[in-house]
Amino acid sequence: MSTLEVCLVRHGQSVSNAAGVWQGQGDSPLNELGRTQVEGLRHALREQRYDLVLSSDLSRAADTAKASGVEVEHDRAWREIHVGDWEGLTMEQVVERFPEQIEALKARQSFAIGGGESWPEVFERADASLAKLRQRLPRGGRAIVFTHGGIIAALLSGLLGVRNRFPWPLGRMRNTGRTTLRFSGERVELVSHNDDTHIPAELRQKYEPRPDQVLVRLTSIAGDSELANTGTTDFNSAIKSARKTGAGGAVSVSGTSHQIANLAQQTADASVNEFQFVAPEEGRSSELLISESHRMLLDYGLPIIQI
Questions:
Q1: 114, 243: one domain
Q2: I want to staple 223 with a disulfide (CB 3.0 to 4.6 A). Which of 46, 63, 122, 256 is the partner?
Q3: Which residues sit opposite 296 in a β-bridge?
Q4: Secondary structure element (H or E) that encloses residue 157, with its range
Q5: Which tens digit of pLDDT belongs to each residue from 39-78?
Q6: Domain stops at, among 151, 169, 202
Q7: Burial call 46-58: b when 16+ CB within 10 Å, e when fewer
Q8: Are residues 247 and 153 in the same domain?
Q9: In the chain, what is the straight-line distance between the N-terminal and C-terminal CA atoms, in Å?
Q10: CA distances from 259 to 29, 93, 151, 227 (A)
């Protein structure tokens, strides 16, 4: 059976990202940090070969796509969600000007954000774009898509079957973060998520946990499935104790690749049986965010950077 690998890449940091304002289909360009991120991405991709290279036509994605070093096909269907009148506003300004929409958002109601698109409309557009991509490579191969955080989140939540849950179990995409998926028939595998290790360590976006959260850094170590079974109790105990020992901070836990993949599967709680997390290779890292109400994988299966 043929296998199709798809790498989804969020664009580099834009001027609007840095300003902390809403950007949907407005054409905010990359800023200096964004260009630095793209340069790191270019080095990471220089040995990679793809059968299809797609990009949103918005400049922040299109300029990021230049990191591929090859001709890129631009498609407006891969654009970010259209946020209408929210474009260019801070969250505080949105709350002040659109209180009824904020109440609808809190109530998990579907509405056209700022008069632009609703999430169901974005889901439909994102799903159609992915389906079209898969149809173009019926015999498998490799594709890379340079797009936006909202579109990547829409696709992942749909593949997991968790669109009715909030927050979604996979963390928000970081600028130039890469998520790699494999499709084989009905089976979907997540190889890695939110990989931004091509960016200098001091420039990578780090999550600072709130007092009610703990960040668990997971490292895969050598071990087989038998070891994973015999060591499950100790591994699970370490995860459970992390909340008490690291509230408001970060702790580190090691486990076999099978244990970490199983934990990721449990965290995602996917309603689609065909979705599986690929066991990370030895020495790969993942980050799990834990609070009293939920768990979230901030990233998964990243190479550990040697300093």
A1: no
A2: 256
A3: 289
A4: helix 149-160
A5: 999 999 999 999 999 999 999 999 999 999 999 999 999 9
A6: 202
A7: eeeebebbbbbbb
A8: no
A9: 40
A10: 41, 44, 30, 9
d(CA 287, CA 218): 6
- Residue carrying the six token digits 């499950």: 232
| β 178-184/187-195 pair status | antiparallel
Q: Residue 107: which CATH number?
A: 3.40.50.1240
- Name the phi and psi angles at 171, rounded to 5: -65, 160
Task: Give the end of a domain, one of 169, 202, 235.
Answer: 202
How many domains does the chain contain in total?
2
The pair of structure tokens assigned to 281 is 């290779």
Q: Which residues are catalytic?
A: 11, 80
Residues 154, 233 within the same domain: no
**Residues 85 and 220 both lie in one domain:** no
> Whose structure tokens read 């928000």?
172
Q: What residues make up the domain containing 287?
A: 207-303
- pLDDT digit string (tens) for 120-173? 999 999 999 999 999 999 999 999 999 999 999 999 999 999 999 888 999 999
Amino acid identity, residue 130? L
- The DSSP element (H or E) to which 133 belongs, if any, is helix 119-136
d(CA 135, CA 140): 10
Q: In terms of domains, do 143 and 260 share one?
A: no
